[in-house]
């Protein structure tokens, strides 16, 4: 813990990579592990482009339900520490796999959302994208002004990340002295690649997670515990 604290204190340039675990203490279920969404639902039925073309109403019902859960959630002390870091450091980039918007709600500005944003919709015909925070959505599936069907503004399995975003994240990681990896199972690619990439580029890697992950052996330090408790102690 002391070593990790020193690295963070002395670093001018830090990247944080977050996953669903950082929002767990805000009451939002993670995907894997006990109580995880993928324990009760099949990703193939709900989070792929094929699932959406097969049954858009079903996919939308699931996203509408998740939007309702997330709408009730508030940022927790783990999120707030990342806001303090952004304010304290010359160079801080937050790279998140989360679509819940809690990092913005906490007050972070420089956020790279690798997997999109559940509060944005995108037209499947004209590709227009817009924010929509209504909970519940009045009509499913929602429509675009052009009459086309809207989809959630998130990245599904088998889809590419938003253009340029991985390059931007990789660039931030290359220039960082510390990569702080919080609350991710580190099994979804390409996001997980940022961890060994940081290591090769010479950054110290600090992992915060109650359980071991495939990337724990890549990390210089693994701090075991919930983000809402560990991050404030750092
Ligand atoms: P996962 O659900 O795969 O992993 C959550 C991680 O958070 C696990 O390693 C837990 O041990 C850890 N965790 C649980 N509670 C925690 C706490 N209080 N503090 C810190 N860590 C905690 O979530 P992600 O790694 O984000 O993708 O999953 C990656 C991607 O897979 C998601 O973005 C989503 C999902 O399918 C898409 O939808 C494209």
What tags apply to this protein structure?
single chain; 234 residues; alpha/beta; Rossmann fold; SIR2/SIRT2 'Small Domain'; 2 domains; six-stranded parallel β-sheet; 34% helix; binds 2'-O-acetyl adenosine-5-diphosphoribose
- Under the CATH scheme, which class of the largest domain? Alpha Beta
* Fraction of residues in H or I helices: 25-40%
Uncertain ranges: none
CATH topology of the largest domain, which one?
Rossmann fold
CATH homologous superfamily placement of the largest domain:
TPP-binding domain
Rounded to the nearest angstrom, the radius of gyration is 18 Å
Total helical segments: 10
Number of separate domains: 2
Q: Give the beta-strand count.
A: 9
Terminal-residue CA separation: 7 Å
Return the string of H and E elements. HEHHHHHEHEEEEHEHEEH
- Which shape, going by the Cα principal axes? globular
Kindly report the average pLDDT value: 97
Spell out which ligands are present.
Answer: 2'-O-acetyl adenosine-5-diphosphoribose
Largest sheet: 6 strands, parallel
Topology record:
Layout lengths: L1 H9 L2 E6 L18 H4 L2 H4 L2 H6 L1 H16 L5 H12 L2 E6 L5 H5 L4 E3 L2 E8 L5 E3 L18 E5 L10 H10 L3 E5 L11 H7 L3 E5 L12 E3 L3 H7 L1
Helix pairs in contact: 6-10
The structure holds 2'-O-acetyl adenosine-5-diphosphoribose.
Quick structural overview:
The chain contains 10 helices and 9 strands.
Provide an overview of this structure.
This protein has 234 residues and is an alpha/beta fold. It has helices spanning 2-10, 37-40, 43-46, 49-54, 56-71, 77-88, 102-106, 165-174, 194-200, 227-233; strands at 13-18, 91-96, 111-113, 116-123, 129-131, 150-154, 178-182, 204-208, 221-223. The strands form 2 sheets. It has a 6-stranded parallel beta sheet with strand order 3-2-1-7-8-9, sandwiched between helices. Strand 4 and strand 5 form a beta hairpin. Bound molecules: 2'-O-acetyl adenosine-5-diphosphoribose (OAD). 2'-O-acetyl adenosine-5-diphosphoribose binds next to loops.
């Amino acid at each position: 813990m002391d070593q990790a604290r020193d690295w963070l204190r002395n670093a001018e340039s830090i990247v944080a990579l977050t996953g669903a675990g950082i929002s767990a203490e805000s009451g939002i279920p993670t995907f894997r592990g006990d109580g995880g969404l993928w324990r009760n639902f099949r990703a193939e039925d709900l989070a792929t482009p094929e699932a959406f073309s097969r049954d858009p109403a079903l996919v939308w019902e699931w996203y509408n339900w998740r939007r309702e859960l997330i709408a009730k959630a508030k940022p927790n002390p783990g999120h707030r520490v990342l806001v303090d870091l952004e304010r304290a450091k010359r160079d801080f980039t937050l790279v998140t796999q989360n679509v819940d918007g809690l990092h913005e709600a906490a007050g972070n500005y420089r956020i790279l959302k690798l997997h999109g944003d559940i509060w944005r919709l995108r037209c499947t015909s004209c590709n227009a994208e817009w924010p929509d925070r209504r909970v519940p959505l009045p009509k499913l599936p929602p429509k675009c002004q052009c009459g086309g069907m809207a989809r959630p503004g998130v990245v599904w399995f088998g889809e590419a990340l938003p253009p340029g975003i991985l390059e931007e994240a990789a660039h931030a990681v290359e220039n960082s002295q510390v990569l702080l990896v919080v609350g991710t199972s580190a099994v979804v690619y390409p996001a997980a690649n940022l961890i060994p990439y940081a290591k090769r580029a010479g950054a110290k890697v600090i992992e915060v997670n109650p359980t071991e992950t495939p990337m724990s052996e890549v990390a210089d330090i693994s701090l075991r515990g919930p983000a809402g408790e560990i991050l404030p102690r750092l």
